[in-house]
Amino acid sequence: MFAIRILYTIDSMINSFLAFVTWTVKPVMFSIGSLQIRWYGVLLATGFFLAYLTLQKIFKKENLSQQLLDKLSLWTIIWTLIGLRLGHFLFYQPEDIINHPLMVILPFDENWHFIGYQGLASHGAVISLLLFLSYFAWKHKMNAFWLLDRLCVVIPIAAAFVRIGNLMNHEIVGSITTVPWGFNFTHGGLGVVNTIRHPSQIYEATVYFLLFCFMIWYYFKIAKGKIPVARTTGILLFVIFTARFVIEYFKEVQVEKERAMSLLIGQWLSIPFILIGLGLLIYSFVKKDQIPQYIEPVEKEKEINP
Q1: Which residues pair with 196 in a beta bridge?
Q2: Handedness of CA 24, 27, 31, 37 (dihedral sign)
Q3: Which is it for the CA torsion 133, 138, 142, 145, positive or negative?
Q4: Are 194 and 165 in contact (CB under 8 A)?
Q5: pLDDT tens digit string along 168-184?
Q6: Are 227 and 293 in contact (CB under 8 A)?
Q7: Among positive and negative, which fits the CA dihedral 301, 303, 304, 306?
Q8: DSSP character string of 25-59
Q9: Please, are residues 121 and 88 in contact by the beta-carbon 8 Å criterion?
Q10: pLDDT tens across 273-292, in order?
Q11: How far is Cα 182 from Cα 197, in angstroms, rounded to an integer?
Q12: Are 125 and 87 in contact (CB under 8 A)?
């Protein structure tokens, strides 16, 4: 009887603990005077850095230069950030491009109050990356899928850290829920504080971390650097946007007009990428013997006249 009572007490304590998580982490990591270092920025930079280190290993395995890697990485980061920001306004708040154009490029509202870069859309980042990488491949005479397939190995780790950054920022919160692992985002703002919500950021980050682990295993252990055309590109698009489509059901709407929609904007935007990813996967298995390679041209040393 005593043992049963102890077990009952422990069970009650666990259930009480799991009733919900009070998320009190402040978005600001620390301040130096008026300068604020935010968790989101640190995690975003960490994600990009880990992706860079992984891509460095890939380039080393394929005997490609550090110069080519640095050039690709720098412009990939720039166009990712541009796509993230422009995508939000194009897809969610197109009216603000005309009404408040400075908000698109500056972290201030119309009254010049600092608000940070609130509003980033991963769909915009994908589109801008596809356009930039296609140009980069053309310029360097690469097979475009050779380049895309290697970038797609490392992208999930950056995406995962972005979602953890959203968690620290108390943003892109989930819908109201009664699940025992729900979060009370105490810095989430009006309508979010003191409501228990799905930690949708953790759902997405988990998918991306697992996908990254799979991609590393696939590239180094299975493909051994020889990826069938479009294989990892297809995997990434299909997995990420299928996950996005499903997880949107557990998210709070991004803009009010979504409440009247049968599918959210993020879901409508995910459908084309899911279909493209599935199509590329099928294509990669049909053309499984087609394995693009890239040999970096050796620059001729310039003769220096005396």
Answers
A1: 184
A2: positive
A3: positive
A4: no
A5: 999 889 999 999 999 99
A6: no
A7: positive
A8: --SEEEEETTEEEEHHHHHHHHHHHHHHHHHHHHH
A9: yes
A10: 999 999 999 999 999 999 99
A11: 5
A12: yes
